[in-house]
Amino acid sequence: MSTPNRVLIAEDSSVIQNLVKKILEFQNFEITAVKNGEQVVQLLEKENFDIVLLDINMPVMDGMECVKAIRGMSDAAKSGVPVVAITGNARNYTEEEFKEAGFNDVLMKPLNFDKLVLVVKGLTEK
Question: Residue 105: inside a domain, yes or no?
Answer without folding.
Answer: yes
